[in-house]
Amino acid sequence: MSEFKELNIVLTGVGGQGTIAMSEVLGKAAVLDGFKVRGSEVLGMAQRGGA
Hints:
Layout: H1 19-32
C-alpha cells in the first residue's frame, strides 16, 4: 500500500473524452494497490447515441 493515508482524485471531461473509462481504469489500479475506492458519475444533458 502507498504511503498516502487518503488520496482524492477528481476527473472531469465532456462527452467522448473517455473520462468514465479512465476513472474505471484508475479505480481498478487503486484497488489493486490496496486503496478503498468510491466513484460517482454525473451524466449531463448532452445528446447521446446520435440522431
